[in-house]
Each structure stands twice: as C-alpha cells, then as structure tokens.
Write a structure and sequence with these properties.
This protein has a two-stranded antiparallel ribbon with strand order 1-2. The radius of gyration is 18 Å and the shape is globular. It has a single domain, classed as Orthogonal Bundle (Farnesyl Diphosphate Synthase), CATH 1.10.600. The chain is built from 15 helices and 2 strands. The protein has helices at residues 6-24, 33-43, 50-61, 66-87, 104-107, 110-130, 137-151, 156-166, 173-197, 209-236, 239-242, 248-251, 257-261, 263-280, 289-300, and strands at residues 97-98, 101-102. Helix 1 crosses helix 4 and helix 2 (33-43) packs across helix 6. It is mainly α and 303 residues long. The two termini are 32 Å apart.
C-alpha cells in the first residue's frame, strides 16, 4: 500500500489531534465552564501542529503504536497552547491575534487566560501519567523527566525569561541561539524524543542509544531552524497569512536572527540547518522519511 504524500499525512495528523484533544480536554459543560471553554478555545481548531507531527514522525521511525503517539502529542500540544496563552498576555508580549483569532485573554479575560494556561500544563502531565506509553516504567519516567525539563526554567520558561530580559538591549548571536534552544527548541526536542521512546523498529525493545542520539541531533537542528524561519516570516510575512501580528518583534526591539544576521544570511542559515537535520537521519533510511519531510516543511513554510 502506497504511503500518503506529506500534505495528506499532515492533514491526517491534524485531524487525529483535533479528535484526541477534544477527547482529553474537559467539556465546556463541566464546571468551571468558562475555564474549560477557554482551554478548548486556545487548544482546538488551529495551528500547524508541527510538534504533534514530530511526535508522530519520530514514532513512525521506531514502530510506536498510534494511540501512544496521540496521547504524547496531545500533552505536547497542551503545553504549546499554554505557552502561547501566557506569551500573549499583556505582561508578556501583549498580543491580540493568535491563529487568526483573538488571543485567549482578549476573548475571555486575563485571569481566565492565566488559569487556562495553568490548567493545560497540569493536564498535560496527567495525560502522561495516566497511560502506558513506553516499554517500561523507567523509560516512561525518563520521558516525563525530559518533558518537565523542556517546560521549565531550563527550557521553555527560561527561554521566555531571557527573551523578555533581552528586549531593547544588544545580545550576541550565541546568546540568541542559547535563548531559542530553550524557548523554542526544548519542546521540539522533547516532541521528537518522546515520540521515539513510545516504540521501536521491532515493536519490542527500547530504542538504541545511538539512534536516540541521532534523533536528538535532528531535533536540535529543526528546533533552531523553526525559530530562524519564524524571524524571517516576522519580517517578511503578512498578519492575515501568518495568523498572528507580523513585524511585532522588530517593532518591540526584540533581537532576532534577521536583525543580527541580516535577512539573506538568516535564510542561508535555515537551509544549512535543514541539511544538518537530514544528515542526522542518514542511518534511518525510509523509517525517517516523515521527519525529513517535516524538516523541509519547517524551513520552507510561509506561515
């Protein structure tokens, strides 16, 4: 049977995620209804689902069961949604548009948005604890440990703190890269590694350490590439196409790859990272074809 092309596959992943997230999120008919409505508003019905695709792509490379991948990808997407809710708040980036619709605090209110993000974070960890996702308890604990680190002060939250502190002041390119390894790259890396740890090529033994190391290298490359392209699109893109406010980082005086490297050099760097990501997957053969396609999508996307 012929495998679906990447566009068909990515649509299938998005549809799977919409169904799974609708299942795992509390109903808006359940008290507290407004909070649950805000959680669903921020998580359902939008987004590229890149992190979910990475979970599924890595899981396909190691023979993981689709249901396991749905659960892990749902947890990742909940964390991503929580981070966007909080990033958009007036005390952070103060944005009014996300995924082509009003941000959560605009649609509801600041307090509800704050609580919705908090509740999504808790629910993500509950999902990982409620289901068997790896070949053994120790492996699953390692997955949860990796996920927690990706979300915390040495991951996404830490990167956001550095980002806020860097507004209006000059930072070096290595400092910018470190910030984005934490802010954007940590959750992307966790998506790949947790997806891989849900299975193996044989469907039995845990994934080999050497394979996990190559996937880790791939994840670091695509995580950095994602942010480089985000900066390019922030400078070149249109708000209606992007689904968020274009040019906001530049207007706010935030350091970006385009401001430090220039637009042409940033584009060259993104292509270099794409090539590095493909080299990292060289030993996987056809098993990693989806991961290669995701890397291409990340670098060549227009929104």
């Amino acid at each position: 049977m012929k495998e679906p092309d990447f566009q068909a596959w990515s649509r299938d992943v998005a549809a799977r995620m919409e169904t799974a997230l609708a299942e795992f999120l509390p109903s808006q008919q359940t008290v507290p209804m407004r909070l649950h409505d805000a959680m669903r508003y921020a998580t359902l019905g939008g987004g590229k689902r890149v992190r979910a695709m990475l979970v599924f792509g890595a899981g396909e490379a190691t023979g993981a069961a689709p249901r396991r991948l749905e659960i892990v990808a749902s947890a990742v997407e909940m964390i991503h949604a929580y981070s966007l809710i909080h990033d958009d708040l007036p005390c952070m980036d103060d944005d009014v548009l996300r995924r082509g619709k009003p941000t959560c605090h605009v649609e509801f209110d600041e307090a509800t948005a704050l609580l919705a993000g908090d509740a999504l974070q808790s629910l993500a960890f509950q999902l990982l604890a409620d289901h068997r996702l790896a070949q053994g308890g120790d492996a699953q604990l390692e997955m949860i440990k990796l996920f927690a680190a990706a979300c915390g002060s040495r991951g996404m939250a830490g990167g956001q703190a550095i980002d806020l502190d860097s507004v209006g002041r000059g930072i070096t390119l290595p400092e910018l890269e470190f910030m984005h390894i934490l802010k954007t790259g940590a959750l992307i890396r966790a998506s790949v590694l947790m997806g891989a740890q849900c299975g193996s090529e044989s469907g039995g033994a845990a994934i080999a350490a050497a394979e996990l190391e190559r996937l880790d290298r791939y994840a670091k490359c695509v995580g950095l590439a994602f942010q480089v392209v985000d900066d390019i699109l922030d400078e070149e893109g249109d708000s209606a196409v992007l689904g968020k406010t274009a040019g906001k980082d530049k207007a706010a005086g935030k350091p970006t790859y385009t401001s430090l490297m220039g637009l042409a050099e940033a584009k060259r760097f993104a292509l270099e990272l794409l090539e590095d990501s493909r080299e990292a997957l060289a030993g996987f053969g056809e098993r990693a074809e989806r991961l290669r396609e995701i890397a291409d999508f990340i670098v060549h996307r227009r929104r």
